[in-house]
């Protein structure tokens, strides 16, 4: 393997420091993000020919696709881990597996506007006026440290937003004297708030006194041959140092879709590789996004002349599929997409025949089922009159993110709609294999092929668009979950609130009188909810 001179020089100039590196292909797309304790040693391993015999197919494909790389120096290995996770979620590199889900590192959250503030663990920030500490690379060290903080500053660990006498009777924290029991007015709110603020200072890194104290206790225990206690204190001290170590907070890095070097050339090459009648001027790509079967959504992206046609992007919530079933999800989305296109074409072009429109002989009205044509026209472009009204033409090529199974599911739906004359392929991620109907073996193009790069851009954009929609729905659900902390809300009353106001943001703006109109809420409950939401709103 020949290493480009520019890469060789950059590797030689890398520092022997911890950091992250981003591998890019010839279009500037980030294809891999990695972390290193020593940047020069780690990155140089990628370009050593002597190691080539030990490479697997995936790693070999990565090496062949690398055209350039960037790096960023950090202060420590935990900091590199945090930045690596953030960048993988930002760029979704196709050669990364870890950190590509929506799970994030833990943070500590406390809302000083609560009646009796408490520290909780969370993975996502919300705009509600709370203070956040973290994220922290080690969840076990964080939990151990948080337990120490609660004991040291006598803070509550119970769940209720406003604990009462009834909660105190069964509270282990209060009876063990870990908590000053503000729920029974042992201390005033101002006194308890001082305890919370002191704990906040501790989590901000002002913990030298505590570390010295634990170090002294550890030495005393060891001198007294209390080795188990000394070992526990040693572990607690290590957890404390790991948790309170200062790390940078990295700003969000904007996503940009890389453009082709020569779109026209890539389209011509793609048409020849797939045996099409000509270059596919209009390509539509589909992808499914779900995490463990929840918030299942799909995306449709459109490329015209090798460039994104964002006006014709579409997103879908999966309606008919239960659980995680990508085949059924792809089938549903393809059916919904092209049924709608045909229906809209029929409505807009009702004055012309189906043959005049260049479409299959379809339904008599939008509500009826699509009838299969006796013969399929060769042309599948919508008429000019339809395009002017915003109804897209049928594509020259459909790209499905997946292998044989996903492609088969899509083709079955297209046949039902009488659209199986539209060329359709699947692009599998692992080895970038192209699956075609009726072909037993996948097509493998060179990783330097412009045709493959064009398909990858369509696939990656559909993946990004689907993941963005999935994340949006999850954040909306998280914002709604703030209602779960309101005492005795129940699913029925929560659903009634969201049905009337649409979102928590609109509920915050509602008056007490409007909230009281919701079924299950009287004047007192409405006033308490309003106070609760104001405490959760952004300060100032």
Please give the count of helices.
Answer: 20
- State the end-to-end CA separation: 60 Å
- CATH names the topology of the largest domain as Nucleotidyltransferase, domain 5
Class from helix and strand fractions: alpha+beta
Structure description:
The chain is α+β, with helices and mostly antiparallel strands and 540 residues long. The protein has four domains: 5-91, GIY-YIG endonuclease (3-Layer(aba) Sandwich); 108-244, no CATH class; 263-455, 2-Layer Sandwich (Nucleotidyltransferase, domain 5); 486-536, 5' to 3' exonuclease, C-terminal subdomain (DNA polymerase, domain 1). Helices cover 44% and strands 14% of the residues. It has 20 helices and 14 strands. The strands form three sheets. Strands 7, 8, 9, 10, 11, 12, 13 and 14 form an eight-stranded mixed sheet that branches. A three-stranded antiparallel sheet has the order 2-1-3. A hairpin with a 4-residue loop joins strand 12 and strand 13 (433-435). Helix 11 crosses helix 16 and helix 12 (326-348) packs parallel to helix 15. It starts with a helix and ends with a helix. Mean pLDDT is 77; it is low at 251-258, 352-358 and 361-391.
